[in-house]
Specification:
- The structure is a single chain.
- This protein is mainly α.
- It has helices spanning 12-26, 43-59, 66-98.
- The protein has a domain at 9-30 and 38-82.
- Helix 1 (12-26) packs antiparallel against helix 2 and helix 2 (43-59) runs antiparallel to helix 3.
- The longest helix is centred in the last third of the chain and has 33 residues, at 66-98.
- The chain is flat, with a radius of gyration of 17 Å.
Length: 102
Amino acid sequence: MDPNAFVPPATFEFLVSSLRMQAEVQLGLLHFGDEKERPEPNFPLARHAIDTLAMLQEKTKGNLSWPEQRELDNALTELRFRFVQVSDQASAKTKGAAGPAE
């Protein structure tokens, strides 16, 4: 079987999807394995993927088709929301583990 048969085309949509998936994995939103083996979120790596998408948005402003722009905008909006959500959950978990303040 041809090893290149499963290589997706190099498209803008694929690039956005790849960066989005990287951020989702780093945030712990995508995990492939047992729940007990779920790694802790890696916020610096998640932020890097989100910042890369934001840079791509800035550098391609005015040069994307409507569907491409919508996909990029939606990815950034969702990832930024999820980053804050996961950060808040991690912070609450840390505070809960520390016990009540004296």
